[in-house]
Design goal:
Length: 262
């Protein structure tokens, strides 16, 4: 991409620096955050089969092969969008079109929309793979699943919730404050595992008192995707923080606190 191309596509500094643009960018960031928030709340209900109108185990009857294909396509769409848009090279390319202050909010918005599409179009596969039967075991599994979601939420706040979901960037832009470059952090839970957010998702997806074939497909594919996501994320983190992150990998396990390699 030449300098001229860059100038043709990017938003002019006068517009980007204007008060009205900053305010619109801020409102956009808030809107993207609200869409994310509704999506993550819906995700809890969808996976756990609680409250929401359409869950992982409800929807139109679909032949199994068709259901598998549609569900795999929906998960692949999310995985590709989520991984590709998070890479540094992609960010460098698309911030020619999307102003930098709203880049993260736009990523969050697209990720939320592809998840909402998944919830909407997901085909149930009702064959029961396991059923806890015993009420105490069922309650334990539901509690564990909730604990997984709590782990996800608390970890986002521990690492930096508002930066992860783009609000920090649009707020700084609004008040004319520079966004600081990313810093390597290992607060609280990050001293025990490198990926507490992903660990929370895995627990939340697998701890099901009644595991249907559809839910199992979702849990298995998302877990596989999490491992791919971790590999990509750690590659970027090593690029960004070098030896500091390499030593962290040596010291702290990926997902299971008592086993260093995993
Ligand atoms: C969705 S968060 C997931 C964080 C972590 N993988 C987890 O599961 O808790 C992804 C963002 O966190 C950043 N990140 C992950 N670990 C980090 C660390 N130790 N210090 C600073 N940023 C980190 C990544 O660069 C990425 O932008």
């Amino acid at each position: 991409m030449t300098q001229i191309d860059h100038q043709v596509h990017s938003i002019s500094p006068e517009i980007a620096g204007s008060r009205i643009f900053k305010f619109i960018a801020f409102l956009y960031g808030i809107a993207a955050y609200l869409v994310f928030f509704v999506t993550i709340l819906y995700a809890i209900g969808f996976v756990m089969g609680l409250v929401v109108p359409k869950t992982i185990d409800t929807g139109a009857d679909t032949p199994t092969a068709e259901a598998v294909i549609i569900n795999l396509l929906l998960m692949t769409l999310f995985a590709v969008q989520h991984s590709v848009m998070a890479r540094q090279r992609f960010k460098a390319w698309w911030t020619q079109f999307v102003p930098k202050p709203v880049e993260r909010s736009t990523y969050v918005l697209f990720a939320s929309l592809s998840l909402l599409l998944l919830f909407w179009q997901w085909r149930p596969m009702p064959t029961v793979v396991w059923d806890a039967g015993d009420p105490d075991l069922a309650v334990t599994l539901v509690t564990l699943s909730f604990a997984g979601w709590v782990l996800v939420f608390t970890s986002t706040f521990i690492i930096n919730h508002f930066e992860l979901f783009g609000l920090h960037q649009v707020t700084n832009h609004l008040v004319g404050k520079q966004v600081e470059p990313p810093r390597f952090k290992t607060p609280l839970l990050y001293k025990f595992v490198r990926h507490p957010i992903y660990l929370g998702f895995i627990i939340a997806f697998w701890a099901a008192p009644t595991m249907t074939a559809g839910h199992l497909l979702f849990a298995a594919v998302t877990t596989a995707y999490i491992f791919v996501g971790i590999a990509l994320e750690e590659h970027d983190l090593v690029d960004l923080f070098g030896d500091e992150y390499r030593q962290y990998k040596q010291r702290v396990s990926m997902l299971i606190p008592w086993r260093r390699s995993v």
